[in-house]
């Protein structure tokens, strides 16, 4: 079976064609700067193998539909084609927000569109593009099942006392304001991988999963199901991120409005794009921050400290949520690559049975690995996430 996985963003499309017989990646591609004067398409067939072929096209790409069609042409036609169009059995789409209605993956049917369109207000930056990609693919692949995999689905087992905000109840009933979380596909994937690696059923495991990339979130996973997560109504809440503030006192809005004369849109923009690591030290890439710390940059050090302290605080709160913690999993760009952030996050948690082995932590690898000491009560793992494969597996499971 071959699955095309599409992640359609506001001005980009990421895609992978996966051969599910051995879960190998046949093609990866990225369409960028859709709608701008000049767009680009970069694609690799059989990436990472000795058969790898890279193709780069620069030309205006007016719409997502055009970008997707160009991508399909590369996959299925021309000298580097890897399969015919009718060999693609299912298309899986990443969708950021599913709301309360879409708590499991679905095969799109025509009658779903009113409910799907409703979800757009929960993630106005992401869902319209995600769903637009699904519409484009439906036209390009008539008769091929289009599966939507929602980032929020894994979090739908969070109980009401954890997903409710203490706001007037009608805002939940009428405006659907509650915690939905994000990165769920990744949290679920690494939780399952951790259970597999530890040789235990995930239903018997309590885990804290930390997805730390440019966006960052954490989940408390109890008996294999999500019990709490750090992102909220939107992906702004929780941990300190590249440019997003994470948790702040909600009164900050009024304070900034009064003191600086900013309107809501400006404040929202600051919290999303000018805060987090960037707000604290002017840099949002952790590699630049480490380089600056080495040179004695105090603000960079502060940004690192604020970030790791916040994450540690969440670990403490999730220990309280879970009671017993079997493992902590680090994943995504920072989680997978940054031994300093991992070490500083866990520092001080030794009395709670969480001990990092500095040597294992320092090893750079693309493989999953345990980085805790042999006598650490809680296993600590680095597990590379693979959202595309997770989407492909969900899509295949659904159509089977
Ligand atoms: P996104 O949320 O955009 O999917 P990623 O998971 O790709 O983000 O993570 C990107 C971030 O990971 C970068 O901004 C950078 O801070 C961090 N990162 C990537 N590689 C390294 C590395 N080798 N060391 C430290 N941080 C890294």
TrEMBL record:
<feature type="active site" description="Proton donor/acceptor">
    <location>
        <position position="151"/>
    </location>
</feature>
<feature type="binding site">
    <location>
        <position position="387"/>
    </location>
    <ligand>
        <name>Mg(2+)</name>
    </ligand>
</feature>
<keyword id="KW-0460">Magnesium</keyword>
<comment type="similarity">
    <text>Belongs to the acetokinase family.</text>
</comment>
<dbReference type="GO" id="GO:0008776">
    <property type="term" value="F:acetate kinase activity"/>
</dbReference>
<dbReference type="GO" id="GO:0000287">
    <property type="term" value="F:magnesium ion binding"/>
</dbReference>
<dbReference type="InterPro" id="IPR004372">
    <property type="entry name" value="Ac/propionate_kinase"/>
</dbReference>
<dbReference type="GO" id="GO:0006085">
    <property type="term" value="P:acetyl-CoA biosynthetic process"/>
</dbReference>
<comment type="subunit">
    <text>Homodimer.</text>
</comment>
<dbReference type="GO" id="GO:0005524">
    <property type="term" value="F:ATP binding"/>
</dbReference>
<dbReference type="InterPro" id="IPR023865">
    <property type="entry name" value="Aliphatic_acid_kinase_CS"/>
</dbReference>
<feature type="binding site">
    <location>
        <position position="14"/>
    </location>
    <ligand>
        <name>ATP</name>
    </ligand>
</feature>
<comment type="pathway">
    <text>Metabolic intermediate biosynthesis; acetyl-CoA biosynthesis; acetyl-CoA from acetate: step 1/2.</text>
</comment>
<keyword id="KW-0963">Cytoplasm</keyword>
<keyword id="KW-0479">Metal-binding</keyword>
<dbReference type="GO" id="GO:0005737">
    <property type="term" value="C:cytoplasm"/>
</dbReference>
<feature type="binding site">
    <location>
        <begin position="285"/>
        <end position="287"/>
    </location>
    <ligand>
        <name>ATP</name>
    </ligand>
</feature>
<keyword id="KW-0067">ATP-binding</keyword>
<keyword id="KW-0547">Nucleotide-binding</keyword>
<feature type="site" description="Transition state stabilizer">
    <location>
        <position position="244"/>
    </location>
</feature>
<feature type="site" description="Transition state stabilizer">
    <location>
        <position position="183"/>
    </location>
</feature>
<feature type="binding site">
    <location>
        <position position="7"/>
    </location>
    <ligand>
        <name>Mg(2+)</name>
    </ligand>
</feature>
<protein>
    <recommendedName>
        <fullName>Acetate kinase</fullName>
        <ecNumber>2.7.2.1</ecNumber>
    </recommendedName>
</protein>
<comment type="function">
    <text>Catalyzes the formation of acetyl phosphate from acetate and ATP. Can also catalyze the reverse reaction.</text>
</comment>
<dbReference type="InterPro" id="IPR043129">
    <property type="entry name" value="ATPase_NBD"/>
</dbReference>
<dbReference type="Pfam" id="PF00871">
    <property type="entry name" value="Acetate_kinase"/>
</dbReference>
<dbReference type="GO" id="GO:0006083">
    <property type="term" value="P:acetate metabolic process"/>
</dbReference>
<feature type="binding site">
    <location>
        <position position="94"/>
    </location>
    <ligand>
        <name>substrate</name>
    </ligand>
</feature>
<keyword id="KW-0808">Transferase</keyword>
<keyword id="KW-0418">Kinase</keyword>
<feature type="binding site">
    <location>
        <begin position="211"/>
        <end position="215"/>
    </location>
    <ligand>
        <name>ATP</name>
    </ligand>
</feature>
<feature type="binding site">
    <location>
        <begin position="333"/>
        <end position="337"/>
    </location>
    <ligand>
        <name>ATP</name>
    </ligand>
</feature>
<dbReference type="InterPro" id="IPR000890">
    <property type="entry name" value="Aliphatic_acid_kin_short-chain"/>
</dbReference>
């Amino acid at each position: 079976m071959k699955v095309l996985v599409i992640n359609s963003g506001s001005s980009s499309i990421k895609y992978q064609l996966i051969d599910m017989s051995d879960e190998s990646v046949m093609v990866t591609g990225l369409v960028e700067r859709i709608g701008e004067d000049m767009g680009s398409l970069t694609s690799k067939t059989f990436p990472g193998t000795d058969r790898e072929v890279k193709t780069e096209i620069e030309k205006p790409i007016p719409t997502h539909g055009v970008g997707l069609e160009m991508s399909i042409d590369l996959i299925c036609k021309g000298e580097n084609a890897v399969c015919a169009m009718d060999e693609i059995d299912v298309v899986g789409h990443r969708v950021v927000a599913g709301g309360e209605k879409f708590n499991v993956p679905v095969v799109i049917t025509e009658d779903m569109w009113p409910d799907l369109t409703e979800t757009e207000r929960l993630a106005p930056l992401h869902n319209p593009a995600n769903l637009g990609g699904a519409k484009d693919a439906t036209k390009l692949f008539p008769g091929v099942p289009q599966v939507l995999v929602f980032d929020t689905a894994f979090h739908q087992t969070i109980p009401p006392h954890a997903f409710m905000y203490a706001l007037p109840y009608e805002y939940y009933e009428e405006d659907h304001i509650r915690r939905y979380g994000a990165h769920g596909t990744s949290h679920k994937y690494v939780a399952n991988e951790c259970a597999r690696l530890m040789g235990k059923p995930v239903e018997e495991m309590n885990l804290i999963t930390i997805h730390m990339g440019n966006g960052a979130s954490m989940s408390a996973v109890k008996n294999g199901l999500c019990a709490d997560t750090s992102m909220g109504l939107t992906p702004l809440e929780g941990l300190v991120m590249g440019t997003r503030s994470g948790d702040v006192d909600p009164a900050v809005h009024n304070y900034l409005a009064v003191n600086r004369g900013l309107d809501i849109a400006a404040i929202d923009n600051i919290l999303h794009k000018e805060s987090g690591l960037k707000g604290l030290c002017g840099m949002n890439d952790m590699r630049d921050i480490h380089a600056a710390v080495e040179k004695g940059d105090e603000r960079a050090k502060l940004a690192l400290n604020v970030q790791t302290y916040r994450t540690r605080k969440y670990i403490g709160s999730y220990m309280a949520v879970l009671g017993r913690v079997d493992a902590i999993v680090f994943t995504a760009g920072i989680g997978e690559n940054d031994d300093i952030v991992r070490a500083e996050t866990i520092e001080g948690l030794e009395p709670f049975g969480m001990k990092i082995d500095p040597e294992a932590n320092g090893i750079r690898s693309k493989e999953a690995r345990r980085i805790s000491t042999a006598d650490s009560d809680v296993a600590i793992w680095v597990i590379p996430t693979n959202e595309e494969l997770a989407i492909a597996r969900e899509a295949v499971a659904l159509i089977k």
